[in-house]
Structure formats: structure tokens, C-alpha cells
Amino acid sequence: MSAIHLVASGLAAALVMLGVQPACGQLQQDRPIRIVTSGFGGGTDFASRQLASGLSARLSQNVIVENRGSSVVPGEVVSKANPDGHTLLVSTGGVLWVLPMFLKVPYDPVRDFSPVVLAASFPTVLVINASLPVNSVKELIALAKAKPGALNHVMTAYGGSAHLAAELFKYMAGVKIASVPYKNTGTGIADLISGRVQLFFSASGPVMPHVKAGKLKALAVTSPRPFPLLPDLPIVAHTLPGYDIEGFYCVFAPAKTPASVLNQLNRELVQVLGQADVRQKFLAAGIEPRGGSSADLGALMKADMKKMANLVKNAGIKAQ
């Protein structure tokens, strides 16, 4: 054995005898934390950068956001990463655990990840063309029943929140409304304003400026409770009891990450989400900061997977 090995072994033995264990099961301050997420400019990118900035300040270490263009690549990267807490995933529930109900993905949403924290939630907003002669969810349902198949809605991503919100609405209201696929939100909104399509279940950020300008009408939000940023809008559930579609920005680590590391990350991220400036930025973007324990996120994921699986089955949604 070399002299270096002898010294190292002796030091380790001495530390054990003194009751001092070498550092383990915790983040290493001299190593950066990598947050892997989807492409630039979207909601997950925004959430990731807010969390990275706050976490970096609290831990006094570098936290890097790594953008990957594909929706499934971030999950694949993190699922294969070393489970030491230095590689994290920020994703929506729609991508992480709903998309696998429709498409084959290179990870298992339950087996391959450890929940860290529910960072934020966001409802979709039911908006309609301004010239449509309705002013409430009840009136929209009545019009759809009077003219089956005459209305259509924007669908920007198969299995995404806009798609599932519309499918649940059609299923619970018992109406026929056609889906019109769009490659991006901007084109869908342009056609909604022009009247080529009549309604859209959209994140609030892209559509509310058009509502304020009178180009669109907002009827309700899809969350189970009023949204703080849009307190004057009713919830769809007032008309369709039990209706509940909400998007989630979540933080996950690779499976088998030590509980002590998960607890440290959760504790620090909850503190970040509670900061006044961070809350203000999230709300201004139409996103509600959340928090809670790692177990809370695990329970939410389990419940939402069950709810979405039931929706897919009952509404007869088929993979495309």
C-alpha cells in the first residue's frame, strides 16, 4: 500500500473513532447543480431559471440550467444521471407522467425518478372568439349542444394541458367540439382571434393580453379553485362539478437519490418559492408558486396519473 493510501486510511479510521463520518448523503458545495429542462423560452425554462437563481444564492454554489429541445430528452437524461442530487429535472406533469400514456418514452415516470418539490401550478383559461354569442361556460355548453360539431378548439400538443382540458370539458358536458391541431400557440391564437376556431384552453400568459384588448373573451379557469392572478374569473367546476385540470411544474431527482439529499433540496427550494420577489415573478407569468414536501409531490403525481388515466379511458382518447 502506498504512503498516500496509508495516510488516507488512517485518517478515515481516526474520524470514525472520533465519531465523525466523512461527508456523504449531502450536496457537495464545490460541484455545480445541473437543472435539465426543455427548450428555451417556455414555462419550464422560466421556472427552471427562477429556481436555479434562488437555489444558487441559498447554497452559494453554481446552479446551471441545461435546455434540451425535445420534451422527453430531459427526462431520459436525468433518469440515467448519478443519483447524488447534482442533476435535477424540471418538467410539467403533462410531459413527465401523462405523455407516457400516449407515447413510448425512454423512462418510467414512477420507477426512474425521486420527487423533490412541486414548484408551481397553473390552470388553463377557457377563452373564446370575441364574436361568439356566449358569456359563460353554461351558455357555451348550450351553444355546443344546439350546434353539435359546429365549434372547434385549438390543440397545441397531443396529451398537453390544452388538449386534456378540452377533452375533459367535452366528456363532462356531453358536447361535440372538434380538435384543430396547431404546431405553436401563436398561430392558434391568431386563428382564434380571426374566428377560424372558436375556443382554446390556454395558459393565461399568451391569451390574457388579447382578452384585455377585447380581441378574446375569457370565460373561466380550469383549476379546482380560483386563480390568484385572475380572481374575477369563475372556475369551470361551478358549471361542471368535479371538473379539474391543472398544470404542474415539478422538480425531480434520479431514483435512489439519498433521502437526506432530497430533504436538503426540498428545504432549500421551498424557501426559494416563499421569497416575495420569486412569488411576484411567478404570478406575473400566470404561474402560482407552490411548495410542500417531497411526499406531497409523490402523492399528487400518483393521484393525477390515476385521474388522467381515467380521463383517457372514459373519453376514449386514442394515441396518435
Give an account of the 3D structure.
- The chain is of the alpha/beta class.
- It has two domains: 27-122 and 247-314, D-Maltodextrin-Binding Protein, domain 2 (3-Layer(aba) Sandwich); 123-238, Periplasmic binding protein-like II (D-Maltodextrin-Binding Protein, domain 2), CATH 3.40.190.
- Helices cover 41% and strands 20% of the residues.
- It has helices spanning 3-17, 43-59, 73-79, 93-98, 137-146, 161-173, 185-194, 204-212, 259-273, 276-284, 294-314, and strands spanning 33-37, 63-67, 87-92, 113-129, 152-155, 178-181, 199-203, 216-221, 246-254, 288-291.
- The longest helix is centred in the last third of the chain and has 21 residues, at 294-314.
- The model is unreliable at 1-23 (pLDDT under 50).
**Named CATH architecture of the largest domain:** 3-Layer(aba) Sandwich
Please report the first level of CATH classification, the CATH class of the largest domain.
Answer: Alpha Beta
Q: How does the helix and strand content classify structurally?
A: alpha/beta
CATH topology label of the largest domain: D-Maltodextrin-Binding Protein, domain 2
Q: How many DSSP helices?
A: 11
The CATH homologous superfamily of the largest domain corresponds to: Bordetella uptake gene, domain 1
Please bin the fraction of helical residues: 40-55%
The rounded Rg comes to 23 Å
The number of distinct structural domains comes to: 2
Count all strands and give the number.
Answer: 10
Average pLDDT level: 89
